[in-house]
Structures are given as structure tokens and as C-alpha cells.
Fold this protein.
Amino acid sequence: RCENCKSSFFIMSSKPNIQVCLVSDLFNNHIISNDTTVVVVDLLRATSVISTAFHFGIKEIIPVSTLEEAKKYLTNINTIVAAERNAEPIEGFEYGNSPFQYMNNDISGKTLVLTTTNGTKAINLAKNYNLITASFINSDAVCNYLNSIENDILILCSGWKGVFNLEDSIFSGFLVNKLISKKDYNINCDSALASLELHKNSKKNYFKFLSNSAHRKRLKHLNIEKDTLFCLNPNITSNIIPTLSNGKLVRMNLV
Ligand code: MLT
């Protein structure tokens, strides 16, 4: 049952369920089974950065929730440590959370330790479940994979510091729409229905639809609107599905 919908009936069906959690702080309100696959979304920018880094050869990504944890890795060899808070890089860390910092082969074969305002917290919140990360960069691979398994799905929007954001919800609607176009699912979750509607109303031009969104304005204020443009309409496509294993995001082995 999707707590968000307050529905009082269970659908006893062979079809997998899809739920959308609109803000990571609501994650524990969603009733999911142990074999649910959680798809973490932080479109602007953490999961787009994660997809970009893997595309350019990063070996693994360790998502940490605090700056203190990240600092412990600063002396590790073959390791990049990246930190962002409030969309800005943190002094003392070589990398921040812009996908453009990872579009080079210097990172190939290295370990990335990443801490961001919301995205890495959402990952650690759901770390006990089958967990993958999604962005527009790897959305085809993610949807093909999810359509190929029978697990229930919960799309976990990172949001912003405990409140709703538009971009993660729009992208969730994009994913739900893509999934149900190829396979039958139960959708007994108003958050998922809301995400579908948001996507329907924004898909012509995500950037324009988000003109007044909090994070687009935040990134514009920091003169990094090119990051928004890239994450909403990336010029790279990746078949890599980052999946969490023993606290590290690694490439899912799809064979
Ligand atoms: C987040 O983790 O909330 C975002 O990725 C912040 C950002 O824009 O870097």
C-alpha cells in the first residue's frame, strides 16, 4: 500500500507496483518489500554527475552523507573527493558537483568519493534495498533493465533539504511513462500519478517549464545554468546502470 495515497486496499496481482516518493524525507512512509528496486533520482545534478563520471571511466563511486566522512578519503591514492553544499563546491575539495568536471579521461579507473546536499543522502537512506541511480543520460538502460525484472519499483526523488522539487518529480514522471509504455504495472500511488501529469505538462521544454523553479534559479544565480541545460538535455548517452554494492556505486553487470 502506498502510504502517500492512504489507499486501504491491496492489489493482489502478478503485475509489479510502481511508486514515486516525491521527497526523500517521505521514504519511510512508503510500504515496500525487501526486493523492491529503488531508483534514486537527483537530476540537478548528483545522479547526472554519477552517470557522467561512469561514462568517462570512473571505477566506482562512494556516496557519503557528510563532509567529515568525505575528508577521510582526501589522502587516498587514485581517489577523487568531491563535495557540494547548496549547489556550490566546498573549499578544500578538488571536485564539486558539476558534470562538466567529470567529462575527461583523467578520472578513468579512479574512485570518486561524492557528497552532495541531497542526492548522496537519498542514496544512503535507501542503501539496504536494491538500489540504482538514474538520469536522462542512462534512462534508456535503466528502463530496459527495470522492464526486464519483476521487482516492484520505487523512484526516490531527492528533493531539496526535505522539500519537493520540480525537476526530480518531472524526471520520475518521465521514467514512469517510459516504463508503462512497454509493460503493465500497478500504479496505486498518487505521487506517481502526479509525476506523470507533471511530465506531460513539461516534456515539450523542461528548461522553460522550470524557469521559476528553485534549483534552476539557484544554479542560474551561481552562473552554472549550463549544468541545468546539460542535465535536462544531455549530449551523452550511457548504458551504465550504477548500482549500490557494499556501500559503493558500481557498474551493474547486465550479462
Ligand atoms: C543535490 O545533491 O541536491 C544536488 O545535486 C545539488 C547540486 O546541484 O549540486
Notes: The pocket of D-malate is lined by residues 42, 44-46, 84, 87, 97, 116-119, 158 (CB under 6 Å). Strands lie at 18-21, 37-41, 60-63, 79-85, 88-89, 111-115, 130-134, 153-157, 242-245, 248-251. Residues 69 and 115 are 9 Å apart (CA to CA). Confidence is low (pLDDT under 50) at residues 1-10.
